[in-house]
Specification:
Length: 224
């Protein structure tokens, strides 16, 4: 099977959300095939369905003064930070082609990063599905995962910390977890990573895990 693949580059969170919502409707109507978006965001905080503003350490006024917006979104999970140096992936995919199994789908998303880190960096990562979402290296999360499913079509996705400024995570309790930390590939290796190469890695491993063939598209060609 094929999946439409789009590199949005550095894109405002609100714009990316609007794009997702339009693609979601088109996919639900079977007017387009599955879509995989790769994007990087300016600093932003999102609050999921089970999120609490008490997990944001800074006041709304302070965040606004720094140009940081806060959005309530319909994905699973709690509070998440997005910012430069982080690879964010959004999947607009029909789960009728994935066995209608949300748990399996999330597991496959995590497997993308477990394989990538093992094969390319010899780093052992895991998913602690019993208690915490996302992909972990020991007690530190490197990839957050949160999706929404509407009429069996997914939206939202993952956030993979590559060269992310980890100081910004002090603005929140990531995913509402106070007894574990977060990390990035740069922090683990001590080396600033080639961001474009990591985007390619993510695409390749994603397509391998999901057994898909990517077709690179321009976003305008899908939004009619």
């Amino acid at each position: 099977m094929y999946i439409n693949f789009i590199r949005l580059g550095l894109t405002d969170y609100k714009k990316a959300l609007e794009i997702q919502e339009k693609l979601l409707v088109l996919r639900q109507k079977n007017m387009i095939e599955d879509v995989f978006l790769l994007v990087e965001h300016p600093p932003v905080i999102t609050v999921g369905r089970s999120g609490s503003y008490s997990n944001i350490m800074l006041s709304q006024e302070h965040l606004k003064s720094m140009g940081v917006s806060v959005y309530e979104v319909n994905r699973g999970g709690d509070v998440t930070y997005h910012g430069p140096g982080q690879i964010v992936g959004y999947m607009i995919m029909d789960l009728n082609n994935q066995g209608r199994d949300i748990h399996s789908f999330v597991g496959k998303v995590g497997e993308v990063f477990i394989r990538l880190l093992k094969d390319e960096y010899n780093i052992k990562a895991n998913m602690n599905r019993a208690k915490y979402t996302g992909v972990w290296i020991a007690d530190e999360k490197i990839t957050a995962i949160g999706i929404a499913v509407k009429k069996w079509v997914t939206m939202h996705g993952f956030a993979f910390n590559v060269n992310t400024d980890m100081e910004n995570f002090k603005w929140i309790y990531p995913c509402g977890i106070k007894d574990r930390g977060v990390t990035s590939l740069k922090q683990i290796t001590g080396v600033t990573q080639n961001f474009e190469k990591l985007n390619d890695y993510v695409l390749n491993y994603f397509c391998t895990v999901f057994d898909l063939e990517p077709r690179e598209k321009n976003i305008d060609s899908l939004l009619f």
